[in-house]
Write a structure and sequence with these properties.
The protein is α/β, with parallel strands linked by helices and 228 residues long. 33% of the residues lie in helices and 29% in strands. It binds S-adenosylmethionine (SAM).
Length: 228
């Protein structure tokens, strides 16, 4: 997404980037690790979850990046109109409760000529295990996301005003500790993975993969578009 949005390989010196639904600050980390701290790029990391904002803030301070992290609900971004040159949401748009409103906010805070970018799961590496582990529990229709096809993506982005919609496929492997992964899932799915469901899921994953590392394959879409 950083390449597709034009921020890499070399960002414009006046780039002001919103890392929208930033989580622990993965995008900012990749960006600053690639372009260095003196590139002139400014990043604002925003997330709804306090724990994520704290983690991103810590990273920013430790690395001396030209960045800040703050609580920011994607449905009501605490930023003025026409502010950012880039508004990037890495695996966030499918988690907001009202994507239409979040898209309107993405548009509003972008400067004319600015770029919006999303990555969206087509088949996330966690979905099959979650369905088996919580068999019988009513889950959202993970496999029916409108973010899977260019046609439905155009139908969502065009009415908001975005143009030049570009959708590219992405396949990647995630490797990590099972305990960290299960904990992270609990942060993402606060409504599903609570109480008995959380225990069931954790027990299933530990039984299947042990308590070491595991690898999962993900397919996703990288989406970019312009605010004219
Ligand atoms: C799958 S994580 C991705 C985090 C990060 N972008 C990354 O690439 O690692 C999704 C993030 O969306 C955040 N989120 C969910 N709803 C949100 C909202 N309404 N406004 C802002 N952030 C939200 C969650 O707190 C979580 O950090």
């Amino acid at each position: 997404m950083l390449l597709q949005s034009g921020l890499l390989p070399e960002p414009a010196a006046n780039a002001v980037v919103l890392d929208n639904a930033c989580g622990s600050g993965v995008l900012a980390t990749i960006l600053f690790n690639t372009v260095g701290v003196d590139s002139g790029v400014k990043v604002v990391c925003g997330d709804l979850a306090e724990v994520m904002v704290e983690t991103a803030s810590k990273r920013i301070q430790e690395n001396n990046w030209n960045a800040e992290a703050r609580i920011a609900d994607a449905h009501q971004l605490p930023f003025p109109d026409d502010y950012f040159t880039h508004n990037l949401m890495n695996f966030g748009i499918q988690l907001v409760s009202n994507s239409e409103l979040a898209l309107k906010e993405c548009f509003r805070v972008l400067q004319p000529g600015g770029k919006v970018g999303f990555t969206a799961w087509v088949h996330p590496g966690w979905v099959d295990d979650l369905k088996v582990a919580l068999e019988g529990v009513e889950l959202p229709a993970f496999g029916k996301s409108p973010w899977r096809t260019k046609e439905s993506i155009l139908n969502m982005l065009t009415p908001v005003g975005f143009t030049n919609v570009d959708v590219q496929p992405l396949v990647f492997e995630h490797r990590g500790k099972i305990s960290t992964f299960v904990r992270y899932m609990g942060i993402l799915f606060t409504k599903i993975l609570v109480g008995e469901n959380a225990d069931k899921y954790s027990a299933y994953m530990t039984k299947k993969y042990g308590d070491g590392d595991f690898t999962s394959t993900w397919t996703a879409a990288i989406i970019t578009a312009d605010k004219p």
